[in-house]
Amino acid sequence: MAESREYDLIVVGAGMAGIILAARIAEMGINPRTGDRLRIALVEAGPHWKREVGGHSDPDWRRMVPQIVWEEFRNVPRWPWPYGLKMVGGCSPHWGANAFPPYDVDYKNWVDEMEIDWTQNNMKSAVDDVMKTLHVHEDPEQAFSVGDHMFRDAGYALGYHPRGYMTARKNCIYCGFIGSGHGCKYDAKGSSLWYLPTFLKHGGELIADAEVQQVNIEKQGAGGVVKGITYLKEGRTVQARADRVAVCCGTWGSPVLLAKSGYGPRSELGSTTVVENKNVGQNLDGDTRYRIPVIFDQPIKEAGRGTTGGIYWYDDDPQFSDGTGRVRFADKDMSKITYPHVAAMSEFAPGYGKAHMDFMKGAITRLGAIDIGVSKPPTHVKGWVDLHSGAHNYPGDDYIDRRMMQVREIAFEIAKRMGCEISERFPSTFKGRGGGHGNGTCRAGSDPRNSVIDQDFEAHEVQGLFVADCSSYPRAVSSNCGVVGAIMGAFAARRIVRNYFSRGV
Ligand SMILES: Cc1cc2nc3c(=O)[nH]c(=O)nc-3n(C[C@H](O)[C@H](O)[C@H](O)COP(=O)(O)OP(=O)(O)OC[C@H]3O[C@@H](n4cnc5c(N)ncnc54)[C@H](O)[C@@H]3O)c2cc1C
Fold first, then answer.
1. Of the residues 42, 94, 95, 479, which should be mutated to test ligand 1's pocket, given the most ligand atoms within 8 Å of the CB?
2. pTM, whole model, 2 decimals?
3. Which contacts of 77-83 are long-range, i.e. CB under 8 A and separated by 24 or more positions?
4. What percent of the chain has pLDDT over 70?
């Protein structure tokens, strides 16, 4: 027999956005009738590796990150989709902590294209919350390597405005080793876990290792109304009742869960459709990136010091005024030592034997890459998520191919100015490769015909159902998406509290 529980709000997915949303609603919201503290459950499919926030990690946490190489992922459960880490914290304990808030043009795209009120001014309090709590700042000058400086000088010489990466860290020693894909053993890397104590302190209940099977939606007229969720915990099926459910399962996970719940395109869901919305899983937007390897004659970086980002700048396509075609240039691996196993497999490495041994003596300090990527594809280029498997599909198009070829020439110019050798290899097409840092698969908009949620994060057709994570924002931003996902959580919390969990509503 199924167990049953009851809440005011259930948040599904304790990832980047989910924890922040749950924490801020627990802190700011009240039951509008009684004034009591809200009963909130935060339900996460993956485990909770407990640790002291801001302290030195405990043994469990260290077990999860036993090696400072990608093999650590062997210990982390995964979803079949991109960025699919399954744990309390979601992708945020492993992200690179390269932390970029939206730019003016990003807000403008959202407002103009989808007619929503997501202006910079309206989102300010949520943005400030995330920037402050995750301690977002520019990498310190002292952490930059010789390679970073060379890249920056080349950017200036070509007329750009190079800047140091923004990062989310506290008490970081900038050893340069803990970049993307690694959990920092000393908890310097900002993650949504930093919000978890706030959630627990305000009475929130964290339910880990509990995969949600569906949001329970009851048909009502042409639409539906939320009744709670069904999840699996230790082999048992649990029903949890709530009039409000916020889905925060990420760009790939959220549409999959909505589809399992019977909310999505009838053409895909068939007879399991409870309420139709054609846009669930559609409109996948995101960047198309490529790293061009380079190698220097001399060391450009040293052990024990380095940023995880480096230097970047944007190149806009002059034929568009809305940011379409925006490309980000970034120096990659010019700051931190290249791991030996990566250096050994570099395309610059000679075949085995003495030449390879000689190469390996200095390669870890001489290798780097120039990262180029169309961060804002044209609006007509969108991908989709397979609603059954969560598989990523992104078509790309001729414009993206042309733009990547164009900026490759600029990368060659940068390499020339830095005096390094640059790889000649380059894909002949980027079709099918883009949509990275994906967003938009449950996008916000004023028109239900082209969007899933409204500007207050509530589903157009299902009362009490919210989606708040990277799937919510409608157009790709200028840079990486993690902080934008965090902002979605903080912003949605404010809207949901205002509309449902404050006095007088
Ligand atoms: C290795 C790596 C490096 C990255 N580096 C950067 C970076 O430097 N900068 C940057 O901006 N971004 C980076 N990102 C991306 C960034 O981490 C993500 O964009 C961000 O975490 C997405 O937030 P989210 O809340 O949308 O989803 P997630 O953080 O993925 O959270 C979704 C959560 O929902 C849970 N969930 C899913 N389905 C269910 C279900 N049915 N039941 C219960 N729980 C469920 C998942 O387990 C997960 O915990 C990186 C990602 C990875 C993996």
1. 95
2. 0.96
3. 77/46, 77/47, 79/252, 79/253, 79/390, 80/389, 80/390, 80/391, 81/250, 81/252, 81/253, 81/256, 81/385, 81/390, 81/391, 81/392, 82/252, 82/392, 82/436, 82/438, 83/250, 83/251, 83/252, 83/438
4. 93
